[in-house]
Fold:
Amino acid sequence: MAAVFCIGAGCHPFNDYFDYEIDKISHPKRPLPLGLFKRQTGIYIGVIFFVLSIVLSSLINLFCLSINLIGVVLILVYESSLKNKGLGGNLLVAFTVALSFNYGGAIADDVFKPIFFTLITFFIFFGREIMMDVRDFEGDKKTRVTLPAVIGKKIAVYLSSVMVVISMILLFVPFFNGLFSIWYGLLAIPLSIFTIYALSLSISNLEKVGRTAEMLRLTMILGLILFIVGIFS
Structure:
């Protein structure tokens, strides 16, 4: 948990460093646009946390260390180049986050056992990344070629919604294949309804795409809780 925490803590300062110009428009109240820290400080903080994550992973096993190193490399590649490549950047972020579950499997020497969790997480993160590109369209268009800039904001919202719906369908697979109990299946229903409602807001009104993105964040948090309920019920 500490190793994964350090990866997350490391990637955000790098994100703020590379998104400085965009954040001055889209997120002016973040620490760097406000001048609370120097931009270079973000790099130092990011490096410290990445090194900590690598050290901690090396204390577990070779599988965990390998996944950790792959994650750090992918984050750096994304921030330095792929972030400006639209769809490629969205895919890489979703893949990197979804690796967390394979990391958990690696602790028990079974990297592929949590595959359903990986796929569920990949699709909802992929969809949310596209949704956030729609939200940040005005700031991004000055320095980035995002997917909404290529295919249009409305179509991007539709594509995002399809990805999230796929994740909601996959959410029920562990129940139907007997991996989790009836309680998991019952709790997955209201979570899916909440998520579909969140998507409907942006589909009907592009001005609400920011609200949808925040609601999807809540979906992911509740989804993690749902996984825990499924494991222990």
Notes: The mean pLDDT is 89. Residues 209-232 form the longest helix (24 residues).
